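Hey, sorry to bother you again with one of my protein questions. I've been puzzling over a protein and I'd love to understand its fold better. Take your time with it, there's no hurry, and the full record follows here:
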Amino acid sequence: MTDRITKAVIPAAGLGTRFLPATKAMPKEMLPVVDKPAIQYVVEEAVHAGLTDVLMITGRNKNALENHFDRVAELEATLERKGDTAKLETVNESTDLADVHYVRQGDPLGLGHAVLRAKMHVGRAAFAVLLGDDIIDARDELLGRMLVEQGKRDASIIALLEVDPENMHLYGAAEVEVTDDPDVVRVTGLVEKPAPGTASSNYAVIGRYVLKPEVFDVLEHTEPGKGGEIQLTDALMEMAGDVEGTGGVYGVVFRGRRYDTGDKLDYIKAVIQLAADRDDLGPELRPWLVKYASGLDTV
């Protein structure tokens, strides 16, 4: 079903205040996860699922994003002159990944507003939204499954993760009904970051969406919600009622590995986990980690 969905939208306009002062002059999306910026993992995921037309919603001081996915003729010429083909390939990899476009969000009015800024580029076709803070392990399928479900059900699809009920206040929470597939649920309600102890389930919305273009029509009349921002969750809540033939909203339950690079502690964990799993770094890193951990005071 991926032949009819080719566009991915990546909102990347946030200020990254949780990582100050590192993000004072560098976009949070460019923070390295081992040896690649976090945003490259997200673009690679989109491309792997067949989405080669990528639109990034950016803001001020995000020029580094554009530079990363652009050619660097002087660097390429230097590496070629030195015969360093391995490094040249890694440099060209990000340049050749996808057809990447950019549009400024302008006013920081929330995720829903950022998605709405993609309307002119996307047109009247279904499209994917990938949040840059979430890295999905390349070994675990998610986006491809969501694209299949979108084509099968002609609905909007969101990614869900079962989390500890005590942490539900950190996420958008989904009310769901079971379907004939244990990994797919019908979404009947959504609440953005519910008060502790009030969530009706432990299904949390994570940063992957495959949306029908009707979401733009809904977002255009969605009033600012929590935090004074236009919440994508509020628009999806309206669409979950199958308003005006939107097809409703379904959730694909993800049971694989996800890394949250928007949180300091989870970012550190992501770097360690991904590095430990690599063939070039893992054999030396894993024994060192075991030795280091054995000497830690856990109290």
Q: What stands out?
A: Residues 263-299 form one domain.
